[in-house]
Write a structure and sequence with these properties.
By secondary structure, the chain is α+β, with helices and mostly antiparallel strands. It contains 16 helices and 16 strands. The protein folds into two domains: 240 residues, Bira Bifunctional Protein, Domain 2 (BirA Bifunctional Protein, domain 2), CATH 3.30.930; 93 residues, 3-Layer(aba) Sandwich (Rossmann fold), CATH 3.40.50. The structure holds adenosine monophosphate.
């Protein structure tokens, strides 16, 4: 038997329904917030991720699916969504002559060669948003609140863990102080941290291995290295979030694994701290570093795979139950032909229905109709059909009525 690749899963049945439930909520939200959907390729030129996500991030150094296509081009399955959206933004010159915010969102599968475990897959689905062309704190507050509101809407008690990395000047000063502080202690930290010291010292702050070490507990704090502008920006953002009722805690450990963030960075977590649900930040330098103009941007992504199991426990059963409008019952060839004809008319008129497509017995069809939650039954029989009539039975009240076959669509539309 051929089995699915390690770290992947099949989505069907109730879990698929939950997935669609989540994505429908997001699609509705995005209309309310005026974001347009974007779809970009699942594979891209490998260089995009090396330049876009950063040579020192774990995602690129350890986790990408890289391969050569049949013409020898080096391509990579996207490990995250931002780089592809930014590439598309630049390539299609979406910035044009615009001075408004350009607001996009995506929903797609990402690929990371990680060690599979609970909630961690090699093929994962992320929903993310990217808002370009505005450096206003208003858009940061809007973006952060979208993720927060969606998680709440899904019934999850989420909190935003927020930090700032400041502007370039503040961050450089902080990095310098951090490296100076860490250097004498570096031998006591893990191998990954030792490698990060020169390449990406901020990453040491969110190291899981050394999290409880005295060295990391006493590191200098970014807050002490922010210039006035960066300080004001962070205060404005916190005030905006408080005004919107978005719950957050400032957590200096949030630095994000990727190289391209500046100013605010954040993660969404379950209130009990048990699970990371999503993460984002402002990345004002990324568009330019990928060959575009200097365009500021802010965005986040959250993992859908983890949400499925959590949301399953929260949604009401009705959301998942099948609820078709009509079941058409037929037992012989002549009735079957009529069943198909009527089903065609109903379905084309936006009335959901099911037919006896598996040759069930009369009794079996009643059971099937109940299983599908059918509101009405159309019970065909040759005698009535000869007179141009069909029987319609209300599956709740059990009342029956003979209806002219040519008027069946209008009749059903009027009672469901
Ligand atoms: P990241 O793109 O690494 O910032 O991750 C954003 C969110 O995607 C995380 O908070 C997780 O919810 C989700 N995520 C990241 N990696 C995986 C994975 N391997 N499997 C499932 N979900 C993931």
């Amino acid at each position: 038997m051929i089995v699915k690749p390690k770290g992947t899963y099949d989505l069907y049945g109730v879990d698929e329904k939950i997935y669609s439930y989540i994505t429908n909520i997001v699609d509705d939200y995005m209309i309310n917030y005026n974001y347009d959907k974007i779809r970009t390729p699942i594979f891209e030129d490998s260089e995009l991720f090396h330049r876009g996500v950063g040579e020192t991030s774990d995602i690129v150094t350890k986790e990408t699916y890289d391969f050569q296509d049949r013409s020898g081009r080096s391509v990579t399955l996207r490990p995250e969504g931002t780089a592809g959206v930014v590439r598309s933004f630049i390539e299609n010159k979406m910035y044009g002559n615009r001075s408004d915010a350009i607001k996009l969102y995506y929903n797609g599968t990402m690929y990371r060669y990680e060690r599979p475990q609970a909630g961690r897959f090699r093929e994962l689905t992320q929903i993310g948003i990217e808002a370009f062309n505005s450096d206003s704190v208003m858009i940061d507050a809007e973006v952060i609140s979208i993720g927060y509101n969606i998680l709440r809407e899904l019934g999850l008690e989420a909190v935003v863990k927020l930090n700032t990395l400041g502007d370039t000047e503040s961050r450089l000063n902080y990095k310098k102080a951090l490296v100076e502080y860490l250097k004498p202690h570096i031998d006591s930290l893990c191998e990954d941290c030792r490698n990060r010291l020169e390449k990406n010292p901020l990453r040491i702050l969110d190291c899981k291995v050394d999290a409880d070490s005295e060295v990391l507990k006493n590191v200098p704090k970014i807050q002490d290295y922010l210039n006035d502008e960066s300080k004001k920006r962070f205060t404005d953002l916190k005030n905006a979030l408080m005004g919107m009722g978005v719950e957050f805690v400032v957590d200096p450990k949030i630095v994000r694994g990727l190289d391209y963030y500046d100013h605010d960075v954040w993660e969404y977590e379950l209130v009990d701290g048990s699970l990371a649900l999503g993460a984002g930040g402002r990345y004002n330098g990324l568009v330019e570093s990928l060959g575009g103009p200097s365009v500021p941007a802010v965005g986040f992504a959250f993992g859908v795979d983890r949400l499925i199991a959590l949301v399953k426990n929260k949604v009401k059963d009705q959301t998942l139950e099948k609820n078709i409008d009509v079941f058409i019952m037929s037992v012989n060839e002549e009735e079957n032909i009529y069943a198909l004809k009527i089903s065609q008319e109903l379905r084309l008129n936006n009335i959901s229905c099911e037919i006896n497509s598996a040759n069930l017995s009369f009794k079996g069809q009643f059971k099937q109709a109940d299983k599908l939650g059918a509101k009405q039954l159309i019970i065909l029989n040759s005698e009535d059909l000869a007179k141009g009539l069909v029987n319609v039975k209300d599956n709740q009240t059990k009342e029956e009525k003979k209806v002219d076959e040519s008027e069946i669509v209008d009749y059903i539309s009027g009672i469901i």
